[in-house]
Amino acid sequence: MTLNIKKYAGEFAENKDTARELRIGKIIPALRSKKKVVVDFSGVSGTTQSFVHALISDVIRKYGDDVYKLVFFKGCSPVIKEVISIVFEYMQES
Question: Domain range for residue 24?
Answer without folding.
Answer: 2-93
